[in-house]
Every structure is written in structure tokens, then in C-alpha cells.
Amino acid sequence: MRSFAPMISTAKAMALVLLLVTVAACARTPGSGADGEATPGSQQEFLVTIGDRVFFETDSSVITADGQATLNNQATWLNRYTNYRIVIEGHADERGTREYNIALGARRAAAVVNYLVSRGVNSSRITSRSFGKERPVAICNDISCWSQNRRAVTVLQ
Amino acid sequence: MDSRLTSITRRRLLQTGLAAGAASVFASPALAQLRIVVSGASFTPLPIAIPDFQSSDPTFGREVAEIVRANLRRSGLFAPLDQAALPQQVGNVGATPDFNIWRGVNVDAVVMGQVERAGAIQASVRLWDTQAGEQVVGQQHQTGGEAWRRIAHIVSDTIYKSLTGEGGYFDTRVVYVSESGPKANRIKRLAVMDQDGANIQYLTEGRSLALTPRYSPSQNMLAYMNYEEGRPRIYLLNMATGQQQRIGDFGAMTFSPRFSPDGQTLAFSVETGGTTNLYAMPVGGQNPTQLTNSAAIDTSPSYSPDGAYITFESDRGGTPQIYVMGATGGGAQRISYGEGSYATPVWSPLGDLIAFTRLQGGQFHIGTMKPDGSGERILASSFHMEGPTWAPNGRVLMYFSDPGGDGGPRLYTVDVWGRNNVQIPTETFASDPAWSPLLS
């Protein structure tokens, strides 16, 4: 039994951050043709040229190589346009139970928050929340949908 | 004397059937002979006749009898005779039945009832053993006029208890999550209904996601999770007044609440920085006590009926599995070891079993195991099912099953022997059922 106060385990959070930053990833060059109309620094630009989401393997909250590339681009962009506050929304696919998936979505969101902070984004700008499996984007009964629903979305405010 | 013995023997047959069904869960060779009585198709539901109840309002008398017949049929332990085959269409509580007539249609029991509605509802019921020619039980019941269906449920419980030796479960309610709208943006709000799907009332408006309602043992309060403030928080909802309040701002997210058996304590999950641990707090209190301290996800706590233990789900070992620990935390022991993963453990109110959701082989399963993890039994399987909740007699489970795609979940019941899997009708999609204690 412990009292409630010392809940945040700094050591654990640090360990997770270290784990995530040990894998280096190259930044992708943002596309520059089709998105010509997006104003630099706009939410539309972020959505179109950077990408607002990363995807996860089943039951995993490890940032994939593709995910790292996307988050590196997000971090660079967010560090340039510091007027935005950021909400990371964690989601799970439907192949798990409701309560566990709410916790899993939170774990995925935390992984993304830690990664962005490790890339220099000020932690005071970021909050996170989990939707578990309650808000899928792709609806079908196979992996093609589930892989799109296992996601963390970076929402600008 | 002979008839008395016969009566006891016949009644004991059904009771033994229940006990043997429970025993077969644990596959004891010594009980092999009893298992033949009840296993699979060899279990024969008790044939029973329930004529319409006598009443100055014959339609009312028929409605009450129909609810009783439906309850007993749905339990799977009784086979109510078709109305067309009844030698007597309306019951008579004042006379001893002509047992020869009832033996002639091969029923072992007959229920004679009378019901009147004059402000309050009053019912008299007599249950007769047709072979022995004896009364099994005779009772009178009364309920308020606004809840007239309850009288039928109370009568059903009387019959069920008398013939099975188990507790009843018909005079109960179920709170659940009513789901409507497109799947990607589905409205999820709390609703409550009678256990047979009647009398649906909506408890929240649907502005925000409301999930995982759980009954207080006192029945007048629910704990549930609401996204009202953008992130999941546990709320307590007073069923009588409709008032609700957040239990407090602990961590980034609070969810997965469950009351202790005495209703004095709430156990729940707190998430901070991606890690989820279990806490417990007196209802109305402000300082939770931490029960687990892992770097994993610990959730879905459920107390043993004596309040001494908590079973919960954790992925501390890599995959979600079921654990049991003392109710004040510490000493958690893993109890699930089958292939796949295990979730949502719920302790039976009888203490003998823990119900769970299992994910294995691309399917979801509802099952039970003993609190030491032995005797696992799968009761139902489908593409997706989860969230078992116990009827107060510990012999029936309700859960939800979802076909996937654009469809949605529906509620089902199944007994602890895996028999009698039936859908409970709801006017919307429905998930997260939570069964109330007996109302009476």
C-alpha cells in the first residue's frame, strides 16, 4: 500500500524516453507539389505535408520506424510553429476488451508524448487522452481496418 | 408417505441436476454418473404448466403469466407447456388441482396464480407437484402499482427457488451502455432495464461517451466512466436523484470502477504517463490508496464476495492475464495460463467462480474458472464478445457480443453450464451490462 502522492514514476518515464530515442531515423522530405495551397504553419499544412498520425502493431505501444519518421517531422514542424498547443489522442483497434484498450490507448499516447519531448517539443504544450477502441476510423472485420485504428493522432489547438 | 418421498425425490432431481452441472465444471470422476443426467442434450428441463393468472382483469392475468412463463423458459431449467396444450387456461388458487389431468399432459409441476390491481398489485401463487399431488409452496406478494411487472418476476423467483434450491434472479435490473449512430462516432449512454429487457430508461443524455457502469450493492448508486470533461473520469450517479459527481482528479485518467461487496469502497484504475495501476478509496472519500505498483496496465478489478481479495487483469507478464491479490494490495498471483490472453475477470457472488473474457485463436470467448485458476470452462465464443456480469444467484451470466463491421453489440445470457445462450432484446445496440442485486 502506498499513498497517492508519488504516483509519477520519473525513472520509468525516463527509461521509456531513452528506449525510444536510441533508434535514429531520417526525416522525410515533405511533399511539395499537391499541397501548394497549404499556408506554411497552418493546420492544413501539418495534416497534408507532415501527417498527423502514427500507427502501432497489435497490442504494442512501441513507435515503429515509420512512426519515428513521422514524429521527427512533427517535432521539427512543432518546434518551428510554437503557437500551437498539442493533444495526443491514443486509440486501439477492436480486437481487445474495452477497459484494457482505454489503458492501451493511453500508453500509446504517452509513448508519442515522450518521443516528441525527446525531440525538443516543450512538454508544457502537450496533453494526451485515450479513446480506447471507442472511435475507430476504419470499419471492417480484418487487419486492413484494425491496423488503421491502432493509432495516435497529433491534434493541434 | 410414498407420495411425500416421490415429491422430494423429483424435486431433488432438478436440484441435483444443478449441482451436478456445477460439479461437472471441475470434472470430478466421482460425479460421472450425475453428469449423465445433465450434460449436453441429456439434461431435460422440468415440464411445468402455468395457466393464465386468475384476475378480474383477464388480460392483466395473462400478461403476468406470460412474463413468468418467459422467465422460466429463458432460464433453460424449465419447459413451460404451450398454452394451447393446457387442459385449464386460467388458474385457480382456491382449489386443489385435479392432478390426473396434469399428469395426463406430462407436467411435473403446475402453477396456479391470482393477481389483482387496485392501486398496489397483489398476487397469490401456489406451486404444486403433480406426481406427488402436493403443494410445494404457496405465497402472497405485493408491489407498487407503477412497477406491475415486478410481481411476475417475484413469482418467477419463488418458483425457481423452490424447485432448484438456488437463489432467484428474475426480480433484478441491468444497467448497460446504449449505443446508436455510426460506428466511427457512436453515441454511448447509460440505460437501465429489467433483466428481461422491459422498462428501459435512459440515464445519461449522450453528449459524452459513458462506459462501464457498475452497480453499488445498495442498488441506488452507479459508478461509471464518462468523457464529459474530455478525458475519462469515474463518476458516481445517484439513481434516485439523477445527481452525479466525479470521484476526484487522480492521475491523467480514472476508469474501470467496481464497488466492494459492502458498498463502502470503490476500486478503480488510475493512468499516469501511460502506466495504469489499481487504487481503492472509500465511497465519498478523497484519498485513494494505491493497491498495485507496476509499470504495466492493471485494470478491471473485482472483489471476492467476502471482500478479502481482488481479481484483476494485468499485462505485467507480457500479455493480459488474470491475477488475484489481497484486497489491500500485494502478493498478486497469476491464475490464467491458457493460450491467448485473458481479460475482465469478475468474481461470482457465490465466490466459487471467476468469469472472464478470453482472446484466443482469433475469437473471443466468455468462460469461468475457479479462483485458483483451475477448472476453466468456455461457455460461449464468437468473433467478438466480452464483459461478463453475474446474476445475483451466481448461476447465469450476461455479456455482450458484436458481429463487427457496421453492426453493433447485443446483450446475451448464458448459464454457468454453457447452456441456454439467448439474446436479451434492447431497442438499440447494447454493451457493458451490469446486473443488479435482487431488488426485493
Write up this protein.
The complex is a heterodimer of chains A (157) and B (440). Helix content of chain A is 41%, strand content 14%. Chain A has 157 residues and is an alpha+beta fold. Chain A has a single domain (39-156), classed as 60s Ribosomal Protein L30, Chain: A. In chain A, strands 1-4-2-3 form a 4-stranded mixed sheet. Chain A is globular, with a radius of gyration of 16 Å. Chain B is of the alpha+beta class and 440 residues long. Chain B folds into 2 domains: 46-164, Rossmann fold (3-Layer(aba) Sandwich), CATH 3.40.50; 173-435, TolB, C-terminal domain (Neuraminidase, 6 Propeller). In chain B, 16% of the residues lie in helices and 40% in strands. Chain B has helices at 2-24, 32-38, 58-75, 99-104, 149-164; strands at residues 46-49, 78-80, 109-118, 120-129, 134-143, 173-180, 187-194, 201-202, 210-215, 221-226, 233-238, 244-246, 253-259, 265-272, 275-282, 289-290, 298-303, 309-314, 321-326, 333-334, 341-347, 354-360, 363-369, 377-382, 385-390, 396-401, 410-415, 422-424, 429-435. The model of chain B is unreliable at 1-10 and 19-41 (pLDDT under 50). Classes of the chains: A alpha+beta (157), B alpha+beta (440). At the A-B interface, helix 1, helix 4 and strand 3 of A face strand 13, strand 14, strand 15 and strand 16 of B.
Q: Largest sheet of chain B, if any?
A: 5 strands, mixed
Q: Give the terminus-to-terminus CA distance of chain B.
A: 35 Å
CATH architecture of chain A: 2-Layer Sandwich
**Largest chain-chain contact?**
A-B, 40 and 59 residues
Per DSSP E runs of 2 or more residues, the count of β-strands of chain A stands at 4
Q: Describe the strand arrangement of the main beta sheet of chain A, using strand numbers.
A: 1-4-2-3
The radius of gyration computed from the alpha-carbon positions of chain A, rounded to a whole number of angstroms, is 16 Å
